Amino acid sequence: MEVENITIGERVKKYRLTKNFSQQYVAQKIGITQKAYSKLENNEIKMGVDTLIRIAEALETPISNFFDESNKPVVNDFSSRTGGDNIIYKTIQSEEIEKMYKKILEAKDEVINAKENEILALKSIIALKKKS
Question: Cβ contacts of residue 117 below 8 Å, gap of 6+?
Answer without folding.
Answer: none
